[in-house]
Design goal:
Number of strands: 7
Helix content: 55-70%
Strand order of the largest sheet: 4-3-5-6-7
CATH topology of the largest domain: Rossmann fold
Shape: flat
Structural class: alpha/beta
Number of helices: 13
Strand content: 5-15%
């Protein structure tokens, strides 16, 4: 009887696999259940056991998803095809500028040229090269600030600003949808309040939360407090987060109504330029920036429900 190849012998428990691949046990089980990424065998005590080949494949899939690909888009590839794809990604990345500032400079040129397709391609390349967090903090955030400044100083038109914003929103939306998180993840409901139509800041925060393993329900822009509160209750949210760019006149009333509509244990986090003028109370926490936002998520994800 033929013996299995050494790399196909199931001998690694799930703890070893998570340590070697960087995947959490929750994500690993979700991938197995949804996509059958690998098929572990059962040991004598019924524990899952993984082979060297399984571990390699899982590590490659994690690298692919961290580069901005969804697991659903690459799961059908053989392990050798995954290796080739990642090698090609690395080779292409080496040919591009790696400094975030370089991507930002090229992006603003695409904005001025009214070339949203070129802007979208450039931003996706930056995402693949830099990773999600650096991309958000060092490319998207300063780019949107520069676009706003150029619009106010009339160096770009409304059409150029709208086209650029649409390209950024499209990429952020796909990033939120494509990042795979387990069903058991902590849940965040995110939106902008009534009267606030600028959604890029909120979508950046949503993408960062998804990257950090949160299940994000993105409701969109310009929502009344009652609708946000209902969504939080229906989605069993751990946190509710809003982004405020301009600060609509009735914002204090909307926030007060939302705070009253949320369960007492659900924190209300508010970020964006318009949040700086808000008083911080027991029922509301101001978010300073993306780093502070991610720290708050770690805090609330680790706290048990009351």
């Amino acid at each position: 009887m033929a013996q299995p190849r050494t790399n196909d012998v199931p001998r690694h428990p799930i703890g070893v696999v998570t340590e070697r691949t960087g995947l959490s046990a929750h994500v690993l089980r979700a991938w197995e259940r949804r996509y059958e990424v690998v098929r572990p065998r059962r040991g004598e005590r019924g524990r899952r056991l993984y082979s060297d080949a399984d571990v390699e494949r899982l590590a490659l899939l994690r690298r692919a998803t961290r580069s901005g690909r969804s697991v659903a888009s690459v799961v059908a590839l053989r392990t050798d095809q995954l290796r080739t794809m990642l090698a090609e990604d690395a080779a292409q990345a080496s040919l591009r500028p790696t400094a975030p500032r370089s991507y930002q400079e090229q992006a603003i040129l695409a904005v001025r040229a009214l070339a949203p397709e070129r802007l979208g391609v450039l931003l996706r390349r930056a995402l693949l090269s830099l990773g999600t967090v650096t991309f958000l903090e060092e490319v998207v955030a300063p780019l949107m600030a520069e676009i706003g400044s150029e619009w106010h100083e009339q160096r770009i038109t409304v059409a150029q600003e709208h086209a650029a914003t649409a390209a950024v929103v499209q990429l952020l939306g796909s990033l939120i949808r494509e990042l795979d998180v387990p069903d058991t993840a902590s849940r965040a409901v995110m939106a902008t309040p009534r009267g606030e139509r600028h959604a890029v800041g909120a979508m950046m925060a949503a993408a960062a939360a998804s990257h950090d393993g949160w299940h994000v329900t993105w409701l969109g822009a310009d929502l009344p407090a009652s609708q946000i509160a209902n969504a939080a209750a229906q989605g069993d949210a751990h946190v509710v987060a809003l982004s405020v760019a301009t600060g609509p006149p009735d914002l204090p009333r909307e926030l007060s109504q939302l705070r009253q509509g949320l369960a007492p244990h659900v924190p209300l986090l508010v970020g964006g330029p318009g949040a700086a003028r808000l008083p911080e109370t027991d029922g509301l926490t101001r978010v300073r920036d993306l780093s502070h936002w991610r720290a708050l998520l770690r805090l609330h994800a680790s706290q048990p429900r009351a």
